[in-house]
Amino acid sequence: MNSRGTNEKVNALEYSILVAAIASDPAPLQFLDPYSGCAMGEYFRDNGMHALIIYDDLSKQAVAYRQMSLLLRRPPGREAFPWDVFYLHSRLLERAAKQSDQTDAGSSTALPVIETQAGDVSAYIPTNVISITDGQICLETELFYRRIRPAINVGLSVSRVGSAAQLKAMKQVCGSSKLELAQYREVAAFAQFESDLDAATQALLNRGARLTEVPKQPQYEPLPIEKQIVVIYAAVNGLCDRMPLDRISQYEKAILSTINPELQKSFLEKGGLTNKRKMEPDASLKESTLPYL
């Protein structure tokens, strides 16, 4: 299994459990597999620890459940799934919980994965799971082939928790970026047929292309949140607007090395990006930008 080999390389198996039901296993095993993993996660939660349970993926469990139901001659419904397929996933995902301080303050977080067919998020199983969770991240094959990785569709990816789960500094720097990216994708679709663009449209396309380029990252190389704040701050304030796209990744590395690490850590504090904290990054970022224009 590829996931096991990857986890072994970074010693993640020391604090991970893999519960696997492969495609050749009987349908009842594929049906029960997520519940087994959930029970193991609950053990850690109930003992005051924190567990992340990744279900990859619940579409296969739903198909296995459909197969069992049809063999049992239960009445089929939409897409031949049985009538209680919603309960199949709701009773699993709603077991994720945060305990109170009086009961050891443990927690379990569910991260379900759903496979879509041709990017159709309105299919039966995707809509069921979307209605249960606190938000979704939608990935697109087309974006992946265009080398936008992670291949996240900004328009379809939403959070029902919103900015309540974000640090103040992150809210400050990326508040308008989602709207700008949505406008960029809308305008870019028409701009390819239009040769004469006005200055405002051209500026929107330039900014959008760079806001799309900045979040790209290599696989297995997560960026600490304080560094994310610095990079996004530079992009939303227009410092990358005149920069060639192929130099943005070099620029990101350069600016992260110029700003004091202690100052970066201060962005995580409650005050966020105060005017005083902005002074040093503003000067450093503008100076670091010049060699890359």
TrEMBL record:
Any single GO CC term annotated in Swiss-Prot or TrEMBL for this entry: proton-transporting ATP synthase complex
Taxonomic superkingdom: Eukaryota
GO biological process: proton motive force-driven ATP synthesis
UniProt cross-references to Gene3D superfamilies, sorted A to Z: ATP synthase alpha/beta chain, C-terminal domain, P-loop containing nucleotide triphosphate hydrolases
Entry keyword set: ATP synthesis, ATP-binding, CF(1), Hydrogen ion transport, Ion transport, Membrane, Mitochondrion, Mitochondrion inner membrane, Nucleotide-binding, Transport
Record localization: Mitochondrion inner membrane
Database matches in InterPro entries: ATP_synth_asu_C, ATP_synth_asu_C_sf, ATP_synth_F1_asu, ATPase_a/bsu_AS, ATPase_F1/V1/A1_a/bsu_nucl-bd, P-loop_NTPase
Domain ATP synthase alpha subunit C-terminal: 166-270
Domain ATPase F1/V1/A1 complex alpha/beta subunit nucleotide-binding: 8-159
Cited CDD domains: ATP-synt_F1_alpha_C
SUPFAM superfamilies in UniProt: C-terminal domain of alpha and beta subunits of F1 ATP synthase (SSF47917), P-loop containing nucleoside triphosphate hydrolases (SSF52540)
GO molecular function: ADP binding; ATP binding; proton-transporting ATP synthase activity, rotational mechanism
Family: Belongs to the ATPase alpha/beta chains family.
Subunit structure of this chain's protein: F-type ATPases have 2 components, CF(1) - the catalytic core - and CF(0) - the membrane proton channel. CF(1) has five subunits: alpha(3), beta(3), gamma(1), delta(1), epsilon(1). CF(0) has three main subunits: a, b and c.
Task performed by this protein: Mitochondrial membrane ATP synthase (F(1)F(0) ATP synthase or Complex V) produces ATP from ADP in the presence of a proton gradient across the membrane which is generated by electron transport complexes of the respiratory chain. F-type ATPases consist of two structural domains, F(1) - containing the extramembraneous catalytic core, and F(0) - containing the membrane proton channel, linked together by a central stalk and a peripheral stalk. During catalysis, ATP synthesis in the catalytic domain of F(1) is coupled via a rotary mechanism of the central stalk subunits to proton translocation.
Name of the protein in its database record: ATP synthase subunit alpha, mitochondrial
Species this protein is from: Triticum aestivum (Wheat)
